[in-house]
């Protein structure tokens, strides 16, 4: 079965211009009536076009001025947010670096911390921590949890 | 002027003070909106099967169209671009619906979104359309309600122009059969 016909465009035109079936020339009418492709095109185009008019008439379209104004407001809000985003990120990184540095200074200078570290290394069997399960658990903590939080907090 | 402000305040003020946020000016946008909003709403309403969603997506489509700030040579290019955005939004909305209802099948979501589920009496075409796949609805609507060419439809739906003809043919046959059945049933 043919999936297209050379007269398809003419048939579509006749249907969309409401010329079908009364105001089309005899030749085209005879063709449409005998061609299954054009018959479908005419039937569907007329039905969908009518449906489009009915549906569009039901639409409660907001005023163009209001849409423009709301879009302007939203764009400015988003621009403002985007403009401060790198600064906020830099502030967070600086904060994390400062905390890390403070921790390192404390670790390097505190005798109490040093002795606790030595005691821990001596008392715990470090081989146990080399077990693959620990590695998997650590990977889950490092990657799985932030990913889960990201998907849970993300909008969609 | 900026002496007592932080970096954040300065950036924010600069972003807000930019006179033209969009490339398109207001008059051109309003004229374009007035010419196309109803058509896009009808398209979204038929593709999603949900008028409320069509209201939301319409505003989002025009916003994204403005935000994209793409240079368009003709009105036709603008319309194509707008319909492509609307199509993608409808697709995303459907995907979100499926995600929100993971224990329901895609067919359930389709049925819920279709006018069959509502109490109001729907016309033959809308009932028949609601039984088609969203892509088939979009394809038929663009072809027969908007009079789009095959290339424009393929562009809007993200399909290859060569694969459009058989898909459109199948969708048309399907709708013709559904409409025929609806007529016989009366």
Structure characterization notes:
The complex is a heterodimer of chains A (156) and B (186). Chain A has 156 residues and is mainly α. Among the domains of chain A are: 8-58, no CATH class; 125-156, no CATH class. Chain A has helices at residues 8-16, 26-34, 36-58, 64-109, 111-123, 132-153. In chain A, helix 1 packs parallel to helix 3 (36-58). The longest helix of chain A is centred in the middle third of the chain and has 46 residues, at 64-109. Chain A is elongated, with a radius of gyration of 36 Å. The two termini of chain A are 44 Å apart. The mean pLDDT of chain A is 84. Chain B has 186 residues and is an all-alpha fold. Chain B has one domain (24-185): PhyR, sigma-like (SL) domain (Butyryl-CoA Dehydrogenase, subunit A, domain 3, Up-down Bundle). Chain B has 9 helices and no strands. In chain B, helix 2 (26-48) runs antiparallel to helix 3. Chain B is globular, with a radius of gyration of 20 Å. At the A-B interface, helix 3 and helix 4 of A face helix 1, helix 2, helix 3, helix 4 and helix 6 of B.
Q: Estimate the strand proportion of chain A.
A: under 5%
Q: Determine the fraction of residues in helical runs of chain B and give it as a percent range.
A: over 70%
What is the CATH homologous superfamily assignment of chain B?
A: PhyR, sigma-like (SL) domain
Main sheet overview of chain B: none
Distance between the termini of chain A: 44 Å
Report the structural category of chain B: mainly alpha
Instruction: Report the strand count of chain A.
Output: 0
Q: What distance separates the N and C termini of chain B?
A: 75 Å
Q: Round the mean pLDDT of chain A to the nearest integer and report it.
A: 84
Estimate the helix proportion of chain A, in percent.
over 70%
Query: Biggest interface, which chains?
Result: A-B, 42 and 52 residues
The biggest beta sheet of chain A, please?
A: none
